[in-house]
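Q: I'm writing up a methods section and want to include an example of the input and output format. Could you take the sequence below and give the corresponding predicted structure tokens, formatted cleanly so I can copy it straight into the document?
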Amino acid sequence: MGKDFRKEKKILEAGTTVIAQRGYHDAKVSDIAKLAGVADGTIYLYFKNKDDILLTILSNALKDLNKRLIIELDKINDVEDKLRKIIDNHFNFITQDDSLAQVIQIELRGCSTFMRGGVFPELRNYLKIIEETLLYGIKIGNIKEDIDVKIVAKSLFGMLDELSTIRILRKKHSIDKMAKTVFELLCHGLLKN
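A: Here is the clean output for your methods example:
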């Protein structure tokens, strides 16, 4: 008998809610099961443990983000507009679902499986989308040829990730201001011309 994907989805939604509300370390699989309306043992038919639930939440969210981003970037020819779209999509992603944002930006760092696991496959795909955008910009002559696209992609991601975390924890800066600042820094630098 195959997996009931509706039940799996309910478990992941419950996992997102419970982990966001209680924190990763205080969230219990039994609490996730209760909120999902399944028996505790049912969780283990779908997931190995709480880490597996958390990593599946991340994987699904990044797959969705990557898929939407690829579709949107394919419609754009201007490299600056492509970079702006990457930045806007990242910040829009963290504002769509507060619980999911809390889990991915804050609670995920408490998962030793994630922290020891190197670069997560879907995160690697996200970085690859940024790298391909930069390579496109080099190819059409809009971006300097001597940049290391891997370093720039990771730097851009680092800025987006850190600002997303600050936004979730403090809700201090507007998303529009953060997006504009990151875009200006990336595309036009700090120094006056």
